[in-house]
Amino acid sequence: MPRGTTVIGRSLDCNITIEDPLVSRQHASIVVDDHGGRVEDLGSRNGVRINGLQIRETTALRDGDRIRIGTQDFVFCCVEPAGKAHSKTTGVLRLCAKCRLPYPREMVACPNCEAIEQTDEETLSGSFGNDDKSAWGVQLLVEALERALTLGRIADADRLVRRATAQVEELVASGQTVDAQALGALAVQVAATTLATNDPTWALWVFEIYRRLDRVPPVPVIERLGEAAAKHPGIVRGALDALVEQLDGKAGGASPDGSQALARLAQMRRSLAEGGRDPGEITGEWPGPS
After folding, report:
1. Taking residues 208-220, what's their average pLDDT?
2. SS3 103
3. What is the pTM of this model?
4. How far apart are CA 58 and CA 47, in angstroms?
């Protein structure tokens, strides 16, 4: 790093660009001058950590310090001679959605695992659960799952949905709080996997996880579940009944969005009851991820 200020972030206007959804557009800056190096958090959503501790103000850097930005660790090394201030570096890193290793943006596929999924969407918050490592993992898996479904890569989608749901199961089993917004984003993609693979297992998982957490699914999740229910009415009917019964009594204290969601669930239940079960289908229960 030459003398002067180096801005690190997701924007292409930064001196060092990292296409990682946990990195803000302008995430941090590092200043190198006669006094050494120092790093400052530029108001990022997910913060900057030095040797594992989140910084609150401009912090001096020592040789060997590890700087965590997004999901990446950088090691600060003191070298001589110092260079000149720059306006823009030529390197842009892109984070692989599959193996989470960075690689040059100019490359079509990740050189480590050959995946083409990229994580260059809007900045995500690392607040899925209480464990930061689980938070980063689940958020990136949601991004990768959405891209795999968009590209029609069914085998990749199946692998990713198993990993993502397993991480949520671990959070629930350990008693950690699961962030509602992050769970909703994952649930939409999990239910979409049922539509792409014609496997009702994943829609059943969405019904069951909301029942176990005693939460009302947001409307976008219910809409996607409704599509899955139309394809597999007999199989999902039992899971839908269990969720509606679990949420019975919440309507009185629900927010407007919650009331709308409960009404949509009730409507879905009536539609399945009026339509009956498809021949050859049986009511199933969520068996858990394999």
Report:
1. 93
2. strand
3. 0.54
4. 12
